Amino acid sequence: MSAPAQPPGRPHGQPSGLPMVRIRAVRKRFGPLEVLKGIDLDVPAGSVVCVVGPSGSGKSTLLRCVNRLETIDSGRIWVNGELMGYAERGGRLHALRPAELSRQQRGIGMVFQRFHLFPHRTAIENVMEGPVTVLRTPAAQARRQAAELLERVGLADRAHHYPAQLSGGQQQRVAIARSLAMRPSLMLFDEPTSALDPELVQEVLAVMRDLAASGMTMMVVTHEMSFAREVGDQLVFMDDGVVVERGDPREVLAAPRHDRLRAFLGQVL
Amino acid sequence: MTQEKAPAAELPIDAVRPARPGRWLGAAAALLFLVWLAFTVIVNENLHWDVIVAYLADGRILGGLWVTIQLTVLSMAIGLALGVLAAVMQLSDNPVLRGTSALYTWFFRGTPLLVQLIFWFNIGLVFPTFAIGVPFGGPKLIEWQANEIITPFTAALLGLAINEGAYMAEIVRAGIRSVDPGQREAAESLGMSHRQVLRRVVLPQAMRVIIPPTGNQFISMLKTTSMVSVIAGAELLTVAQRIYLGNFEVIAMLVVASIWYVVLTTIASVGQHFVEKRFERGHVRLSSRVRRNLRPLTSKEPS
Lengths: 269, 303
Fold this sequence. Notes:
The complex is a heterodimer. By secondary structure, chain A is α/β, with parallel strands linked by helices. Chain A is 35% helix and 26% strand. Chain A is built from nine helices and twelve strands. In chain B, strand 1 and strand 2 form a beta hairpin. Chain B is mainly alpha-helical. The model of chain B is unreliable at 285-303 (pLDDT under 50).
């Protein structure tokens, strides 16, 4: 699991123009609180978009709306060309049936701040769970794939440990492998290193760097500005439910145009 | 970083314990009481120990014991199934299903089991026949007379199982709610359907919370079956009563029944212990090393 020294710009997975994620005019409220106030965002296929912003800016909610863990109140989200949650027929939107929603969700990997590994299953069983239960992959084949994925995140020797027997960093790497087992075309990371001790952050970021280098499309909500600078193709700064600033991470971080971003960076850097 | 110096010479702790006279006094008093109790019970001729020993393995008693075991296992199994169904209905977002489930637990927890048992036994007075066919007065395919199918055993099973289901519903519901919502989200984002999330992720973890009170319910059910004696259910207590109505050995027969109840509950307690261990899988206590690596959820500040 050696992360290549990362020059700006990645070997393959050059943004190919077609957006993997297209977000238009998305609004979301929780009761009286409007957390997303009209978001427009494109994530080109093969690119890495890092979303940063203060607590309560709506960045995690935006991520959860993309894979329908939250419903949106208005706007549209397309992933891989498919409208999320609805089918358009005869000029009207029809809410998708649960089986259709599940089919859409399985193409999107999600990595949570608190890992959410299944505690009653070992590392390899966690990685096998999706393919076996959802894709009906034969157990032997799923086990082979899971072993390869654990190898890829550097945990081949922890395959038979239960989550409680793993460190936070190891759990998060298993969680990444579990998502990859569904062969997603998009990976969402919701503050994947925020629950980790500082010395464990790098092992998770290294796995994410490898993943980005392999051409995976990624949306990453993070506070790791060095990761955004090295790996990100686009930096999106959100505050109070709107996108305040976006652009090339190296340029944006070097010369932020908005006061709010400057103030935020002053706090986190 | 400074290097630790070589450890100092060992310092064994070989302390003198303080005197604790109260401890010895209490133990002596309790022991004396137990010896006295055992003595009075053993030498008491009114207990008829010879009769107790003679009837302990009596064929009728063993038959009643078997009925008690059957009633307990079957009504717990049906009660658990009803409880899971009612709990899942209670947690669904369909208000009609939620209401139906709430009505069920409300009614059966609100009326005494004894009343329910007598009611089921006499259900023929309300519904003389049972039929499978089109409801609301449509044609019938098969029809039974209530008096034929409602035996004391089926009435007991109905009463115990349906009553148990209402209690199990609450236990299962608490178990399901104890599972971290993040588990559900993680499973959903793998593309699992609601049924798969429930079966593969939520229920196995809920079992850890459901099992201990279910074990208590089972042990309690072993003894609750004795209520069936009001409708002559042919279980352990009914049989013991029938025998003492013939030989007037009331206390001896009750002791015989009690001995068997204690044996059953003891076996069930041991079984409960092993089932609980089985469902502890993955829930090893977090070592301090692992816990150190987890920061509380609230501290989101980046390094």
